[in-house]
Amino acid sequence: MGDEVLYKTNREKDLGAEITPNLSPEAHIKIIPSAAYARLANIRTTFRNMCKESFITLRTTHVRPILEYVAPAWSPYLVEHKTKIEKVQRYATRQVLVLRGMSYEERLRELHLTSLEDRNSQEDMITTHKTLRGIDG
């Protein structure tokens, strides 16, 4: 590239995902929970008493994209990574007042949600199907 000097970096951000030389998702997974918790704090400040319908709309619109953005590229495969990300959703579902005494699984059922691990598995299957069938988008 002419006289341009290329510098070696330990981390690069591309399309919103942190890329490291060893292609580990570790750096990206460290960023996800803090961004999601920040968004949840904004939601909690704005909506003190949240009903189930409001929670589903706000979570789907503002939090889930943070948790799942480019997930097929950095798909967490270590239990500790999955736990860090799932912990955000556990916390988020406790924000609905009427569900506070329930277990996480009961809150998911009540809100008609799936765990993030189940959703990632589903997305992996969809991506694999599209790849094998040659389907774009």
Note down, in words, how this protein is organized.
With 137 residues, this protein is mainly α. The chain is built from six helices and two strands. It has helices spanning 26-46, 52-68, 71-74, 79-93, 104-111, 116-133; strands at 12-14, 17-19. Helix 1 (26-46) runs antiparallel to helix 2 and helix 1 (26-46) packs parallel to helix 4.
Indicate the low-confidence ranges by residue numbers: none
Number of extended strands: 2
Portion of residues in helices?
55-70%
Radius of gyration: 18 Å
* Structural class estimated from helices and strands: mainly alpha
Largest sheet: number of strands, sense, barrel closure = 2 strands, antiparallel
Distance separating the two termini:
33 Å
Features:
single chain, 61% helix, mainly alpha, globular, two-stranded antiparallel ribbon, 137 residues
Give a summary of the structure in a few sentences.
This protein has 137 residues and is mainly α. Helices cover 61% and strands 4% of the residues. It is built from 6 helices and 2 strands, in the order ββαααααα.
Q: Which helices and strands occur, and which strands form pairs?
A:
Blueprint: E1 12-14, E2 17-19, H1 26-46, H2 52-68, H3 71-74, H4 79-93, H5 104-111, H6 116-133
Antiparallel strand pairs: 1-2
Helix pairs in contact: 1-2, 1-4
